[in-house]
Write a structure and sequence with these properties.
The complex is a heterodimer.
Chain A (H helix, E strand, L loop, with lengths): L3 E4 L2 E4 L5 E7 L6 E7 L6 E7 L5 E2 L8 E7 L2 E6 L8 E8 L6 E3 L3 E5 L1
Parallel strand pairs in A: 2-11
Antiparallel strand pairs in A: 1-3, 3-8, 4-5, 4-9, 5-6, 7-8, 9-10, 9-11
Chain B lengths: L2 E3 L3 E5 L4 E8 L6 E6 L6 E6 L3 E5 L2 E6 L4 E6 L8 E8 L5 E3 L3 E6 L1
Parallel strand pairs in B: 2-11
Antiparallel strand pairs in B: 1-3, 3-8, 4-5, 4-9, 6-7, 7-8, 9-10, 9-11
The chains are: A mainly beta, B mainly beta.
Amino acid sequence: GAVVSQHPSWVICKSGTSVKIECRSLDFQATTMFWYRQFPKQSLMLMATSNEGSKATYEQGVEKDKFLINHASLTLSTLTVTSAHPEDSSFYICSVRQREGGEQYFGPGTRLTVT
Amino acid sequence: GQNIDQPTEMTATEGAIVQINCTYQTSGFNGLFWYQQHAGEAPTFLSYNVLDGLEEKGRFSSFLSRSKGYSYLLLKELQMKDSASYLCAVKDSNYQLIWGAGTKLIIKP
C-alpha cells in the first residue's frame, strides 16, 4: 500500500493556541485527501474532504473556521486547529486517495492533547 | 439515513476462529472494506469486497452478500496480535466511506 506520513505524531498545546498537522502522500499524487477525528473508543469521524487546489468540503457540524484545511499540492495537506480547546483533544488521522473510487490509505495519525 | 452495524466487542481464544458480522444500509454501494486498528494507531487495510462471495487472504477471509446488506470478516488460527478493533466501512454512491463503530476483538490465551 501507499505510504502516508503525518507530522507531528503527537502534540501537546495550551488552550487558545493553534496547531498545524501535516499529511504527506509519499508514493503517489493524491487528488483527494481526507481528515478524520477519532475520540477514544469511538469510530472514525470524517471531518472534511479536500481536493488539490480547491476548498475543502466540511462535514456537518465541523467548523470550517476552526479547522483550517489547506491542500496546497498533490502530496501535501495541512489541518490547522485554531484556538484549540481541551475538547479538541483527539486522534487526528488523514487518508489519501489517488483517484475517485480508489482505495484510501491512512496516515499514522496525530494525537493532540490540549491542556 | 446511512447505517452500519457491527458488534461492539467480541472475545475469542488463541488458535480459534472468530467471525465478525457487519450489516449496512447505505445510499448506493461501491464496495465494502474491512480495516484493522490497534489501539493508538491508524487503521490498516485488510480486505475489499465489491461482488458477492468470499475473498480469502491468508488467515483472514471476508464475505459479502449485497442483497442482504451483510458482510463478515473471518479470522482463523487466532493469534494474540489479532487483538484489535475491526472496522467495517462501505463506500456509498458518492464514493464516500461510511464507517461502522468498530468491533473490539479480545483474544485470550
